[in-house]
Amino acid sequence: MNRDREWDFIESFELQQEEDEKSLLATMGIMVRELAIKCPNDQELGKEVRELIKKYKLNTNTNG
């Protein structure tokens, strides 16, 4: 029975990670859409999106 609980925990953890990734993707999509409305041209939009990515990397301590 203990073994089943471990697998349930692992499955639950993996499911939560998937949901977190979907939420992050949706949030980033909304932010980019709002930036596209705000920015007058593609060059400005690209600059803003790069800044957004830099902030994300700093806040999540990811490498790359």
Structure write-up:
With about 60 residues, the protein is an all-alpha fold. It has one domain. It is built from two helices and no strands. It has helices spanning about 1-40, 40-60. The mean pLDDT is about 85.
Shape field: elongated
Q: What's the structural domain tally?
A: 1
**Oligomerization state of this entry?**
single chain
Helical content band: over 70%
Q: N-to-C SSE series?
A: HH
Query: If helices are DSSP runs of H or I spanning 4 or more residues, what is the number of helices?
Result: 2
SS-based structural class? Answer: mainly alpha
Mean pLDDT: 85
- Tell me the number of strands: 0
Main β-sheet description: none
How far apart, in Å, are the first and last alpha carbons? 41 Å
Compute the CA-based radius of gyration.
18 Å
Beta-strand residue percentage: under 5%
Are there runs of 5+ residues with pLDDT below 50, and where? none
